[in-house]
Design goal:
heterodimer, A: 257 residues, alpha/beta, Pyruvate-ferredoxin Oxidoreductase, domain 3, six-stranded mixed beta sheet, 10 helices, 17% strand, globular, B: 550 residues, Rossmann fold, 3 domains, seven-stranded mixed beta sheet, 19 helices, 41% helix
C-alpha cells in the first residue's frame, strides 16, 4: 500500500499542523512514513506545502513523484491547483474555498471555482464558516483535515486521538473545537461522496456542499436522499449557482424546493 | 531503544544529545534552525546539563565549540551552508589544530535555494579543510551518523562535518534511538602548543593533519555506508551519495540490480572502491545532491577518457537545483507519470511569494524611507540585508536594491558613498546588525562616511522562527554609540502609521546632514509578541542573578 498526499495552503494557515497530525496517526497505525515540508522564508505568507507519504513498506524518497499523489489537501482554493502536477489523474482534491488574497492580482473567484470544481474528484468546503461553527476560526485547517479523513488509509479515530493529544496542552475548549471541526469536515465530505454516488454533477456538488453549515455528525440519511433527489433535477446547476452566489449558510436539512 | 518520528534536524539534535554533548551552539538559518532549537527544548524538558546558546554569529558559535573541544568535552555546532562561510576561519584552522573532545559541525545545505542566496555544497569545505564528512541519507542516519561523528572526531582528533540538505533536514520519518552516552569530563591536552597556531607550531600541526589523511582514507574505505556491489559481467555502474540514494531507489526500482553500485555517505572519498567500480563498469553515472563534487574528482573535470562518466557536468542530470526521482528517471530515459491537468488552470493560478506580514513594522519603515528618498534623490539605491525585511524588495515597497550576505548592507553603503552615491542608505535588522553589522559600522564611524544606516529593531530574529536577538531597544543605541556614532545622529523612530509624520520629519533632518547617521526604527515584530516578552524577562532575570552572585 502506498498513499501519497500533498498538504498545502498559505504560510500561517496551519498546513504543517495538519501534516503533523497525519504523521502521528500513521506512526500509531504501525505504517511507514516520510513527510517533507517547507520552512523558513516561504512561511511568511507564501505558498506552503508538505508531502506526506504513507506505506506499509519503508519509504525511500522524501519527494512525491509527478502524477502519483492520491490527494491534494488544501486550506486555500488557488493553492489546491498549484500541486496538481503531482496528483494522479484520478486523484482527489479536498479544498477549502476561502481565498487568501495576499497577492497583487488574485484570480477572479468565479473563474477559479469554475476550474477547481471541474476537477474529476473534488470535495469543496467552506472552511472558515465551518470553523466558526466548530468554535474557532483557528480550526479552519482541521475542518479540511476532517474532510480528507474518509479518503486516507487511516482510521479516523486515530486522527482524532492525535488531534486531542496535540491540542491537549491548550485546554479542553481548544481540543473540543478541533474535534468538532474534524467531525464537521468529515460530515461534509461524506455528504459530498453520497451525492456523487447518487450521480449528481461534480460542479453542483461542490457549490452546494460549500454552502451547507454541517453539524459535527453525519447528515441524516433522509436529508441526503432529499438533497440527491433535488440535485438530480434538470435545474440543479442553476440552483447550485444561486445558492453559491447567495453566500448564505444552508442547514443540512433545508432542501430548497 | 525507542522509536520516534523526527525531522532530520531533530534526529541530529537527539543524536548529539545521546552522544553525550556538553554544549551546543548555533546561529539560526533555514534549513538548520531546528537542530539547536531541539537541543535547547529537549535538554530543558529532560533537565539535561547541556549548555549552549544562539550565538552572535556562526564564527563565534564555532569558536565556542572549539573551546569546548579543547577542554575535552563534546560540542555540536550547527548552521546553514552560508553560515560556514562566516565560520570558515575557525573551521579551517580547527582542522589544523585538531580537536580534543568530539567537535561536530552540522551544516545544512539548501539545493534549489528554498531559503538561501546560493546552493553551495559544504562537502567542498570538508575537503578543503581535510576533515571527514558524513552525509546521511535519511533521518535514522542523521541520528546514527551524528553519534558516530563524535567518536570519529575523538578517534582522529579532528573536527567532523555532518552535511545535511533541505529535504533531509525538513523531512520526517521514524528513528530508533539508542542509549545516551555519558558526557566527557573536562580534561586538557598535555601539550597546549598544539592549539597555539604560531607558524612553528602550525607547521607541526598541519603535518599532523596531513599525516592523518591516510588513516581517514582507510576509515572511509572500510565504512559500511560506502557499500560497493559489483555484479557479473561488464555493465553500467552508478555512484550515488547521500540523499540522492532515496531518489535513485524510486526512480529505478528493481532495475537498480542491473547496475554495479557504489553508495557513498562517508568522506574522504573511498578511492579504492571507486577504482573497483570504474574497473568493473562500462560507464559510470554519478548522482549526488548539490554540486557535482564527486563527479569533478572522478571525471577529472571531464578530462578522464578511460570510461564515460555521466552526471551534472555532462548534462545528463540537471546542473542546478534539487534532484528528484523524476529528474533521475528522465536522465535514464524512463517514463515519468503525468499529473492531473485541468483545462483553464494556468489562467487562475498565480505565484504566491512570501510577503511582509500584515501590520509588520518593516512595511511602515519602508513607506517612510521611500517617501523621503523620493524627495531627496529618487534614483538612489538602498543597500539591503538578510532577514524578513529583505521581503521589502518586493512590490509595493521595492525598498531595497541590493542583498548580498549577512551584514553586508553597511559596508556596501560605505563603498557606494565613496563611489559618489548620495545619499547612500542601508537597511539592516537588529539580529543581522549584531551578527556582522558592527564592524562595518565601526568603519563608517571612523571614516565619518556620509551614509544613513537604518537599523530595523523588531526585537527578534523573526524569519527563522523567533530566536532571541542579542541586542534590542536601548542596547542597540548603546552599541551604536559605543562604535563611535555621535549620539545626536542616533535617532529613534517608531515605524507605525500613527507616528509616520515624526518618522518622516526625522529622516528629512538626517538626510539633510552630511555625515554618518543611524536611524533606529524600533517596533516589536507583530508575530512574536509572546516570545519577545519571554526573552526580555529571561534576560532581565539573568542580569539580576549575576548581581546577586557578585
Amino acid at each position: 500500500m502506498n498513499y501519497d498526499l500533498v498538504v498545502c495552503g498559505v504560510g500561517g494557515q496551519g498546513v504543517l499542523t495538519i501534516a503533523a497530525v497525519i504523521d502521528r496517526a500513521i506512526h500509531e497505525a504501525g505504517l511507514y512514513l516520510k513527510q517533507s515540508e517547507v520552512h523558513g522564508m516561504a512561511q511568511r505568507g507564501g505558498a506552503v506545502s508538505a508531502f506526506v507519504r504513507i506505506s506499509d513498506q519503508p519509504v525511500a524518497s522524501d519527494l512525491i513523484a509527478e502524477g502519483t499523489a492520491s490527494m491534494v489537501l488544501s486550506v486555500e482554493p488557488m493553492e489546491a491547483l498549484r500541486y496538481t502536477n503531482l496528483l494522479r489523474p484520478d486523484g482527489c482534491i479536498v479544498s477549502d474555498i476561502t481565498p487568501m488574497e495576499n497577492v497583487a492580482v488574485y484570480p477572479k473567484h468565479d473563474a477559479l471555482y469554475q476550474v477547481l470544481f471541474s476537477a474529476p474528484r473534488v470535495v469543496a468546503i467552506n472552511g472558515t464558516r465551518l470553523a466558526l461553527k466548530a468554535g474557532s476560526i483557528k480550526v479552519q485547517n482541521v475542518v479540511v483535515l476532517g474532510a480528507a479523513a474518509s479518503f486516507l488509509p487511516l482510521p479516523p479515530e486515530l486522527l482524532e486521538a492525535q488531534l486531542a493529544l496535540l491540542f491537549a496542552p491548550k485546554g479542553e475548549r481548544i481540543v473540543k473545537a478541533n474535534l468538532n471541526a474534524f467531525r464537521i469536515g468529515d460530515a461534509a465530505s461524506r455528504f459530498s461522496a453520497a451525492l456523487s454516488a447518487a450521480g449528481v454533477a461534480p460542479q453542483v456538488i461542490a457549490r452546494v456542499v460549500s454552502q451547507i453549515a454541517f453539524e459535527p455528525q453525519p447528515v441524516p440519511v433522509s436529508s441526503v436522499a432529499a438533497w440527491s433527489q433535488r440535485l438530480l433535477c434538470e435545474d440543479a446547476p442553476t440552483l447550485a449557482q444561486s445558492l453559491f452566489d447567495a453566500d448564505k449558510a444552508i442547514a443540512p436539512d433545508a432542501v430548497p424546493a | 531503544m525507542s522509536e520516534v518520528i523526527l525531522l532530520g534536524d531533530e534526529a541530529v539534535a537527539r543524536g548529539a544529545i545521546d552522544a553525550g554533548i556538553s554544549c551546543a551552539y548555533a546561529y539560526p538559518g533555514t534549513p538548520s534552525t531546528e537542530i539547536y532549537q531541539t537541543i535547547e527544548d529537549y535538554a530543558k524538558e529532560q533537565g539535561l546539563a547541556v549548555r549552549g546558546m544562539w550565538s552572535s554569529n556562526e564564527k563565534v558559535a564555532l569558536e565556542e565549540g572549539v573551546g569546548v573541544s579543547y577542554a575535552g568535552r563534546r560540542a555540536l555546532v550547527s548552521m546553514k551552508h552560508v553560515g560556514l562561510n562566516v565560520a570558515a576561519d575557525p573551521f579551517m584552522n580547527a582542522a589544523v589544530s585538531g580537536a580534543h573532545g568530539g567537535l561536530v559541525l552540522a551544516v545544512a545545505d539548501d539545493p534549489s535555494m528554498h531559503s538561501s542566496q546560493n546552493e553551495q555544497d559544504s562537502r567542498y569545505f570538508a575537503d578543503f579543510a581535510m576533515v571527514p564528512c558524513l552525509e546521511p541519507a535519511d533521518q535514522q542516519q542523521c541520528y546514527d551518523f551524528t553519534r558516530e561523528a563524535f567518536d570519529l572526531s575523538e578517534k582522529f582528533q579532528v573536527p567532523v562535518l555532518l552535511r545535511l540538505v533541505t529535504r533531509l533536514a525538513h523531512s520526517r520519518s521514524k528513528v530508533t534511538l539508542g542509549e545516551r552516552r555519558a558526557p566527557n569530563d573536562a580534561r586538557y591536552v598535555d601539550d597546549p602548543t598544539r592549539f597555539i597556531l604560531l607558524p612553528g607550531n602550525a607547521r607541526r600541526a598541519y603535518a599532523n593533519l596531513v599525516e592523518k589523511q591516510k588513516a581517514l582514507q582507510e576509515y572511509s574505505e572500510a565504512h559500511p555506508v560506502n557499500a560497493l556491489t559489483l555484479r557479473e559481467g561488464k555493465r553500467a555502474g552508478i555512484l550515488v551519495s547521500g540523499l540522492a540514494w532515496n531518489y535513485l531507489q524510486e526512480a529505478l526500482g528493481e532495475s537498480i540490480n542491473d547496475y554495479n553500485l557504489l553508495r557513498i555517505g562517508c568522506y574522504p572519498l573511498p578511492v579504492k572502491k571507486i577504482r573497483q567500480l570504474l574497473d568493473a563498469s562500462s560507464e559510470v553515472w554519478i548522482i549526488e545532491e548539490g554540486y557535482p563534487f564527486i563527479e569533478r574528482y572522478v571525471s577529472a573535470l571531464g578530462l578522464m577518457r578511460e570510461r564515460p562518466i555521466r552526471g551534472k557536468l555532462t548534462g545528463d542530470l540537471p546542473r542546478m537545483g534539487e534532484l528528484s526521482q523524476d529528474a533521475i528517471k528522465r536522465s535514464f530515459g524512463l517514463p515519468v507519470s503525468v499529473g492531473l491537468e485541468i483545462p483553464g488552470m494556468a489562467d487562475v493560478l498565480v505565484g504566491r511569494p512570501p510577503v511582509l506580514c500584515d501590520k509588520c513594522p518593516h512595511s511602515d519603515a519602508y513607506i517612510a524611507i521611500n517617501e523621503v528618498i523620493a524627495e531627496f534623490a529618487p534614483n538612489t539605491r538602498v543597500m539591503g540585508d538578510i532577514g524578513c525585511y529583505t521581503l521589502g524588495a518586493m512590490a509595493p515597497y521595492k525598498g531595497i536594491h541590493a542583498c548580498l550576505c549577512m551584514g553586508a548592507s553597511i559596508g556596501m553603503a560605505i563603498g557606494a558613498s565613496h563611489a559618489g552615491m548620495t545619499p547612500s542608505l542601508c537597511v539592516i535588522g537588529d539580529g543581522t546588525f549584531t551578527h556582522s553589522g558592527m564592524p562595518p559600522l565601526l568603519d563608517a564611524a571612523r571614516d565619518n562616511s556620509n551614509i544613513k544606516v537604518f537599523i530595523l529593531d523588531n526585537s527578534i530574529v523573526a524569519m527563522t522562527g523567533g530566536q532571541p536577538t542579542m541586542a534590542t531597544d536601548e542596547e542597540v543605541v548603546d552599541l551604536v554609540a559605543g562604535l563611535g556614532v555621535p549620539r545626536e545622529h542616533i535617532r529613534i523612530v517608531v515605524p507605525s502609521p500613527h507616528k509616520k509624520a515624526h518618522t518622516v520629519a526625522t529622516l528629512r533632518e538626517e538626510l539633510s546632514y552630511t555625515g554618518l547617521s543611524v536611524i533606529i526604527a524600533r517596533r516589536a515584530c507583530v508575530n512574536y509578541a509572546k516570545e519577545i516578552k519571554d526573552i526580555k524577562e529571561a534576560r532581565q532575570l539573568k542580569r539580576e542573578i549575576k548581581v546577586v552572585a557578585a
